[in-house]
Amino acid sequence: MRSRATSLTLAAALLPAAASAVPTPTADFSASLPGTTVAAQPELAGIVIEDRMVPFSVPASWGLVASGRVQVRTVRGPDGRLTFTWRIFSDRSSTVPIQSLEILGFPRMPYDANWRRDVIGTIAPSRVSGEALSGWRMKFVFLSPNAIAPGAESRFFFLRSSATASRPAGIRIWTGHASSPVLLAAGPAS
């Protein structure tokens, strides 16, 4: 019996553990995202205050196109803080993979960033980055071979803020060097 308990303990130790969110600095940065769960971060559970699908299209001058929808969700946690969450669905008719989601209009402040292991979806972002180029911009990056291929969908990924109120912000979908127009999303009120 003891060897069976030891085997189960060893097997549990070999499973990937859910990590906490990755804190983002307010200076230029790039950080890997390990994924997390509500069990590891109970503050991610809460009341959905906005959940909508936003269509996008990324035209390119050479005829390649990506299109689909972004699920834009805002969740109020038990502490009143807002988590801004996205999930990307690429249409089967797309001809190029999606490589990133860019966030515009978020205040330059610390966030907790990551993606959810415990919800639906298949492709997770590998990195989050921020840079001060004509304003503060952040990106969730889906590096090859984990780009979102035509017909695929991402996992939910998020920025948890200290804000308790929201205001309009923007997002863009990127396929390499081409992007969608700015799409309306919610962001934290500073």
Structure description:
With 190 residues, the chain is mainly beta. The protein has one helix at residues 2-14, and strands at 22-23, 29-32, 47-59, 65-76, 82-90, 100-104, 112-115, 127-132, 136-141, 157-160, 166-175, 178-179, 183-188. The chain has a single domain (18-188), classed as Immunoglobulin-like. It is 7% helix and 44% strand. The strands form two sheets. Strands 2, 6, 8, 9, 11, 12 and 13 form a seven-stranded antiparallel beta sheet that branches. It is globular.
Assign the CATH architecture: Sandwich
Highest CATH level, the class: Mainly Beta
- How are helices and strands ordered from N to C? HEEEEEEEEEEEEE
- What kind of sheet is the major sheet? 7 strands, antiparallel
Percentage of residues in strands: 35-45%
Helical fraction: under 10%
In total, the number of domains comes to: 1
Structural class: mainly beta
Low-confidence runs: 1-17
The best one-word shape is globular
CATH topology assignment: Immunoglobulin-like
Rg is 18 Å
Please state the average pLDDT score: 88
Distance between the termini: 57 Å
What's the β-strand tally? Answer: 13
Number of helices: 1
